[in-house]
Amino acid sequence: MSIGHKLTGAARALAFAGALASATAIAQAQAPAEKPQYGGTLNIGMVYVTLSPLSWDPADIAWKFGQDTGLMYEQLFAGDLMKSKRRGGVNSFQPDSWLATDAIRGELAEAWEWKSDPLRVEIKLRKGVMFPDKPGVMAARELVAEDVVQSFYRLEKSPKKIPAYYDHVEKVAAADPHTVVFTFKNFNAEWDYRFGWGYYSGIVPKEVADAGAGNWKNANGSGPFMLSDYIQGNAVTFVKNSIYWDKEMIGGEAYKLPFVDKIVYRTIKDEATFYAALRTAKLDVLEAVRWSAVDELKKSAPQLQWSRALDTGGTFLAMRVDTKPFDDIRVRRALNMAVNKQEIVSSFYNGNAELFAYPMHPDYIGYYEPLEKMSDAARELFTYNPEKAKALLKEAGLEKGFSFKVQVCSCSPDHMDLLPLVAGYLEHVGVKLEIQPMEYGAFLSAMTTKTNAAGYFMRNGHTNPTTSIRKSFVTKQTWNPSQYSDPEYDKKMAEVYTERDEGKRQDMLKGMTREIIEKAPYIWLPVQYGYTAWWPWVKNYGGELRVGSERPGPIHARMWIDQDLKKKLGY
Question: What is the CA radius of gyration of the chain?
Answer without folding.
Answer: 24
